[in-house]
Amino acid sequence: MDVSYSDVMSRKKDILMRSTGIDYESFEISPIAFDYEKLMASCQYSLEDVQSVLEETGVGNTPLVELKNTTELVRSISPPGKGGRIFIKDEAANPSGSFKDRRAALSIYHAKKLGYKGVVTASSGNYGAAVASQAAKRGLKTIILQEVYDSRKIGQPEILEKTRACEAYGAEVWQLTVGPELFYIMLRVLEDTGFFSASLYVPTSILGIETLGYELAQQVFQREGRFPDMAVITHAGGGNVTGTARGLKKAGSHDTLVVGVSVDLRGLHMASDVDFNRKSFTTGHTGFGIPFLTWPDRTDVPRNCARGLRYLDRYVLVSQGEVFYTTDLLSKLEGMERGPAGNTSLAAAISLARELDRDQILVVQETEYTAAGKLPTSQLTFAQENGIEVRRGDPRENVPGKAIVMPERIDQIQVEDVDMEKIRQSYFANVGKMTKGYSLTEGDILFLSEDSKSSVDFARSTMESLKITRAEAV
Amino acid sequence: MANARRGDLVQIHKIILEPDQRPDSLPSCTKSVPFECWIKGFLIDENANLGDEVRIETFIGREISGTLCQVNPVYDHDFGVPQEALLSIGKEAKKILGESSGE
Questions:
Q1: Which residues have a Cβ under 8 Å from the Cβ of A443 and sit 6 or more positions away?
Q2: A236 confidence band (pLDDT: 50, 70, 90)
Q3: Does A306 touch chain B (CB under 8 A)?
Q4: Residue B66 carries which DSSP code?
Q5: Backbone angles phi and psi of A241, in degrees to 5
Q6: Contacts of B16 in chain A (CB under 8 A)
Q7: Does A163 touch chain B (CB under 8 A)?
Q8: Cα torsion for A179, A181, A185, A186, to the nearest 10°?
Q9: pLDDT band at residue A473 under the 50/70/90 scheme
């Protein structure tokens, strides 16, 4: 079979259908709309089913810890009466050390049930280790494709640690150089092996994360007699936000404000060989966070079940320096040494809790394990070796790729709000670009409003202002 | 003498796409270099030297060929060096907490 780039890409649809067991076309309604809930329900697992699958491999039921010292510190810099209580879901307690075990567990169970002998995924982060760990428990083979090196064969310490972890779990790891051709090689490997595509974006992946939102709502309710007021969630591809928000709703926690957080890496090009090692975060950053909101279907499957814009009430950014600072604070004040990337949402929480009343509850919904390569000292050392300035100062002086500035004072930690209206407009504009020549129907408008958590009027007027016309207007 | 013998843990290197096979949409710094890959496994050939074309059995038992580039590859990522910008964060926070609790 021809394995040239163009030939493999032309077989994409068939390869993905065989490797996910999902006929995505059967959920399509129009060039714009698809039946999201029908796709989510297509693999037929209830929340209870998912919980028991996760329990079999020791995933979930992680501790909810109140960060009392951090809350007290935040209150010392908050206006009178302000400073909400901060809780954290210690997801590092999962088998491979992150919430990604929830994301992998059901997919691996499902793959085995469907008769696949192995699984393939493209991940340079915790997800790869989670897939390898879950597959080890279920007796499936694993291939992990990782973007690790620049063209000098210099790799981010955090990713080198993930290679080690995946190999420790018995996976075959392909360590690749920078480039979106990761997807091409994934298709080739899927075609060669006939393995299951454990994509981050299939329904089983999101259903697994629902248990996280459900659990944290239940734990807060059982302990405090009320649901959390705010859930703060690190956002990259959208799965963490989507699954957690859906789980909160399933628990009955309808009024919890869903806040997404990314590390600000604006200005760095994600496919650039040069920029690759100028960033100190490999996920949870704007390089994924913003594009996945403005065009969620840019993934390794035809329709992405991780749809952050459907669920976000607010989206904020923090700097790399603020996250490293917070990571050290968590060790020193709470006795929890955890990985920096998992503390992205905690950094935001220090700012957001100041807006809440003292009796209100904010939940940071993850932590991740830490190890060589995956901690502030190793990542900052690597940054310095790559010409990045590292110092204390005003976090506003952080410049992605140039300077990492740790705050001098706790009150300098301040989230930057992303304008959600602009994000929605950008999503709609992308829809228009992707479906040029197609005339919108009323059903499409309804889909777009649901898919962007906006009103039907907003969706209609925005599409009209973008001159993306509706069928009856043509 | 050969660098590696059958059964040794080794790493191979492969070029997956040469620059001219990569998509034009890439940034020029990425488009100008090949798309490369490294994989670990156990040497299948009886003997081999660095730079030889070899076959390996990967950790899941698949056979893959490529150029032998390391024997007994090590994980050398570490904890980094102490960072001055981190050293006093805890102390500063504890001082504030001490003050606010009236200590």
A1: A29, A30, A33
A2: very high
A3: no
A4: E
A5: -65, -50
A6: 176, 181, 185
A7: yes
A8: 90
A9: very low
8 Å CB contact of B101 and A72: yes
One-letter amino acid identity for A398?
N
A206, A306 contact by CB (below 8 A): yes
Q: Which of A142, A333, A375 sits opposite B60 (nearest CB)?
A: A142
Name the 3-class secondary structure at A175.
strand
Which ipTM did the prediction report?
Answer: 0.95
List residues bridging with A314 in a β-sheet: A259
* Residue from B15, B30, B69, B97 whose CB has the most chain A CBs within 10 Å, to mutate: B30
> Is residue A177 within 8 Å of A111, Cβ to Cβ?
no
Q: Is the pLDDT of residue A470 over 60?
A: no
Whether the Cβ atoms of residue B13 and residue B71 lie closer than 8 Å to each other:
no
Kindly state the helix (H) or strand (E) to which residue A265 belongs, with its residue range.
none
Report residue B102: phi and psi, to 5°: 80, 15
Q: What is the CA radius of gyration of chain A?
A: 21
Contact with chain B for residue A251, Cβ under 8 A: no
C-beta of residue A117 within 8 angstroms of C-beta of residue A91: no
The two structure tokens encoding residue A186: 């994934």
Q: Which residue has the tokens 């504009």?
A: A429
pLDDT at B103 over 70: no
A142 interface with B at CB cutoff 8 Å: yes
Closest by alpha carbon to A203, among A385, A20, A437? A20
Sort out which chain A residues have CB atoms less than 8 A from B95's CB and list them: none
- How far is the C-alpha of A213 from the C-alpha of A263, rounded, in Å? 22
Q: Would you call B26 and A179 a contact, using CB atoms and an 8 Å cutoff?
A: yes
Catalogue the E-assigned strands of A24-116: 64-66, 85-89
Return the DSSP state at B84: G
Residues of B with CB under 8 A from a CB of A: 16-17, 21-23, 26-27, 29-30, 33-41, 58-62, 75-83, 85-86, 89-90, 92-94, 96-97, 99-101
Residues A24-39: b if buried by 16+ CB within 10 A, e if exposed: beebeeeebbbebeeb
Enter the tokens of residue B27. Answer: 């940034």
Closest to A164 (Cβ–Cβ): which among B61, B75, B81? B75
Cβ atoms of A399 and A414 within 8 Å: the answer is no
Residue-wise pLDDT for A382-434, tens only, equals 999 999 999 999 999 999 999 999 999 999 999 999 999 999 999 999 999 98
Phi, psi of A377 (to 5 degrees): -65, -45
